[in-house]
Design goal:
The protein has 273 residues and is α/β, with parallel strands linked by helices. It folds into 2 domains: 5-114, Rossmann fold (3-Layer(aba) Sandwich), CATH 3.40.50; 118-272, Rossmann fold. Helix content is 46%, strand content 15%. It has a 4-stranded parallel β-sheet, with helices on both faces. It has a 4-stranded parallel β-sheet with strand order 6-5-7-8, with helices on both faces. Helix 2 packs parallel to helix 3 (70-82), helix 6 (157-166) packs across helix 10 and helix 8 (201-214) packs across helix 9. The chain is elongated and about 70 Å long. The N and C termini lie far apart (60 Å). The model has no long low-confidence stretch (mean pLDDT 87).
Length: 273
Amino acid sequence: MNNKYQIYLVSDSTGETLDRIFTALKAQFENFDHLSHQFSFTRTKNQINNILEGAKKNKNSIILYTIVDNNLSDFLLDRAKKTKIPCFGVLDDLIINFSKLLNQDASHIPSGQHALNEEYYERIEAIQFTMNHDDGNLTEDIEKSDIVLLGVSRTSKTPTSIYLANRGYKTSNIPMINSKSIPESIRKKTSLCIIGLTTEPERLYDLRKNRMNTIKENENTNYTNIEKIIKEVDDAKKIFKKYKWPVIDVSRKSVEETAASVIKIYEISRKNG
């Protein structure tokens, strides 16, 4: 018996919000065999009819949607009910409840979160700043950073920085080669949110080994020498402790989890600072 579910993710915008919600949802179920079908910028009844025609042809179809136009979402729900396809609006109840709490009507404008407002341009500025300050670059104006990440090679500094930038945080990251690799300008900057990233040496060894295999580099033996890696990690921890910088162990954390921990530290530092 085929128990694979056909998940139809229908959005009137980019589908980013819906994708994140479904990612969180499916993580709750170990045995969930599924195939996703994504439909973004769905804003007409004709588009919905075409999606439903496809869903009817598959067994175990389920529709999840984020459509803020009430008429269109009602149309989808009605058609799905007639075809006996389970259909769930993941934002509907939230919008209704917030409308009541705030005592105002929702705008029901698709892509409202992507409006070209001040917040949008601040996020773009943060992304540009972060890209320019990756891997120890442009340290002369590092004081403009919201967050500074330090860590030895392969401790997720760059992907975490980029994720934070997309959340609107200007982030610099600096590779920990030795104590001299830390810019003098941040050693005594108590106002900056400086965070050390560390990981288990064995995991670091695996990551670096895979990296070397990927780029077909076999000559840099120091980079993948486990004894030198252990010393690197230990030396970095000593420096973090010396300057009393908070440390996050990324060994078993996803980039999203690491970023969430960074943001929490940042918010605490702002309250105390």
